[in-house]
Amino acid sequence: MRLAVLALAGGLVAAMASPAAAEPKAQPDPTREGPMVHLFQWPWESVGTECRDFLGPNGYAGVQVSPPQEHVVLDDQGHPWYQDYQPVSYQLETRRGSAEQFAAMVSSCNAAGVNVYVDAVVNHMTGSGSVDSGPGSAGSEFSKYDYPGIFADADFSECRRDIENYDDQWEVRNCELVGLADLKTGSDKVRSTQLDYLNRLVGMGVAGFRVDGAKHMPPEDIGALVNGLVEVPGTGQKPYVFQEVIGDSTTSPTEYVGNGDVTEFTYHHEVSNAFANGAVSGLNTLADSMSVGSEQAVVFVDNHDTQRSSPTLTYKDGARHDLANAFAVAYGYGTPKVMSSYTFDDPDSSPPADDGGMTAPVDCDGAGWVCEHRNRTIAGTVGLANAAGGAEVNNWWDNGRDQIAFGRGEAAFAAFNAGEGEMAGDFASSLPAGTYCDVMSGALVDGSCTGGTVEVAQDGTVSTTIPATSGIALHTGAKLS
């Protein structure tokens, strides 16, 4: 969801009505809402190609990309994924590509109608485990607390030790997260340096930011950065911002909503556990247990951290993971974010790479990359979410445990069978009568369905049989008659 995102509606309608409407968009649209995908650790050229070939055509509204700033190079540790989260400078040279390749990627995604959201690492610089690892990915020499031309010792918090007590909010916000040099984010110098970096990205067409480790910074420090962001060129809008806030007894996501949206980790726990255990009937009251309202929540089944630290559901769980993601996209609470992974056994492992640690081009049909966002069960529901828009859930049905069905206004209907037996019956919907493509199994292409079809009766009844650990999704944008 968005804060203050309606200003361009009239202009967009006019553009859609003009002969140029079929031309690719050359700029981002920070007003656009809808599901996004996290292409974790993807190189820039592959992201640009995916925006053009799959994300745009399938209706994804945005893509979260990995941090684009210079990072440490941990050769002796096999280039683990987390080296990207240890900034050395704000040069745009990483294992995923050059500044020129990053700019080309942003341009390609914008032309495809897909917003680019950068993972912004602004809480810290490098860590204790990378003291002797220089130079960085752009060739910069550094040492912990000393980054020539950028930050010196005085720019870091006085607490030079790891956070020991997570019940102490001062420690959480001022001491070091796993040995990472904690910046004085209240300092004018630190803020101005980081704003130069963030605004340079906005000038290149980046539509927004995910603020990494937001709970480790005071809300007002993030607010100062948000307030200092320039408008996205050609849009009249500030960038969209969502913050990583893992709520606990010390920190509430509600403290940060004044700056933008927040990640709702409670949603991850409830939805992941429900589909892992097959106990999905209670999800009809999902919103009641969330800490923030739907309009300011970014939700997910798994992300790059939970895959490794609390893997309730990941790509390794197959159909249950896919079904949970389809639910998250279809249900309409918050802004859903789909994780797109690479395979791993060691949680620290690098993405597919060459001998020098440079990330390999993505091949969704080959080994190494998972590309969950392309799975038909998930990708099909993106169209449903877009067709439903802001319509609320209606016609909820459940069997008391492992089977559910619901509609989204008069535009969409979905049913999920998280059990081990068939789900068969007549289910109420508000859909117009007709024949619909089941978009979890196929798409509407040239007037016919590439997957299954479902009939909706004159009174909106959906009569269907759904196999175990499966579902159906119908919407008016994939109606045959």
UniProtKB/TrEMBL annotation:
Keywords on record: Calcium, Carbohydrate metabolism, Glycosidase, Hydrolase, Metal-binding, Signal
Cofactor or coenzyme needed: Ca(2+)
EC number in record: 3.2.1.1
Catalytic reaction(s) noted: Endohydrolysis of (1->4)-alpha-D-glucosidic linkages in polysaccharides containing three or more (1->4)-alpha-linked D-glucose units
Any GO BP annotation: carbohydrate metabolic process
SMART domains named among the record's database cross-references: Aamy, Aamy_C
Domain Alpha-amylase C-terminal: 394-479
Record GO terms (molecular function): alpha-amylase activity; metal ion binding
Root EC class: hydrolase
Pfam families: Alpha-amylase, Alpha-amylase_C
Domain Glycosyl hydrolase family 13 catalytic per the UniProt entry, residue ranges: 34-385
Signal peptide interval: 1-22
Similarity-based family: Belongs to the glycosyl hydrolase 13 family.
Protein's name according to its UniProt entry: Alpha-amylase
